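tl;dr need the bound structure. longer version: we got a ligand (6-phosphogluconic acid) that a collaborator sent over and nobodys looked at where it sits. i said id run it. heres the input, straight from their email, havent touched it
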Amino acid sequence: MSIGADAAAAAMQAAERITTLIEAAIGERGLAAVCLTGGSTPAPLYALLADPAHPWRARVHWPGVHLFWSDERHVPADDPDSNYGMARRTLIDQVPIPTPHVHQIRGDRQDPHDAAREYALLLPDTFDVMLLGLGADAHIASIFPGSPLLAGAGGGHAHGARVAAVWAEHLEEWRITLAPPAILNARALVLFVTGAAKADAVHAALEAPADLARYPAQLLRDAGDRTEWFLDNAAAARLSVTLDLPY
Ligand code: 6PG
């Protein structure tokens, strides 16, 4: 676990780790299958990875990177809510990544189930890097509290669909999301979470008694030490044990 003094420091720690994981994957297998997350938290992290003023952009062999997403909203790419659109503006348009390596979820499909089916065909067997955010309600990807995708989870996740279209009742919108099996078998899972609004969710994910239906991020316990948390002090505030790493 890494804890930065603030969100900017945490983003630098995460950028360093993600870059190292990408370098290792390309060195070992010739390519890196990287799954990005959505929401607003990772925007500065993507911008850092693309920034020529920092070391990470030059260290990554971008033609070897394949990009995927853990979830998407049911909107076109140019909608402000599009996870793909956010990554395109902050990262993809800024680095020499080949267009065929960008495997977006087609949130513009009229039927989100079509988007899920199409996306499932694009997925690698295993992601090298699974970057995830955390909702204040402890959701990851679009696996929300009470999600049917959690049924049967906690006991293997070996079978079942890897992508699902889900109706998020509380948001009144469709989401297309990776299901637990596709998330949990990643070689490395990087959680990037900042801000005081996430402190309860971080605690719930890491330290609360098991209650998967209420705290979907507890799924990550199944991935053991393949999960690495990058937090700022505010997000880590409710943890009982913390380790401050100066950057
Ligand atoms: C999404 C996500 C989601 C996100 C959290 C945190 O599409 O919304 O991928 O799981 O990581 O909701 O979002 P924020 O960073 O906006 O708080």
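gonna send this back to them w/ a short note. The pocket of 6-phosphogluconic acid is lined by residues 37-41, 70-71, 83, 133-135, 139-141 (CB under 6 Å).
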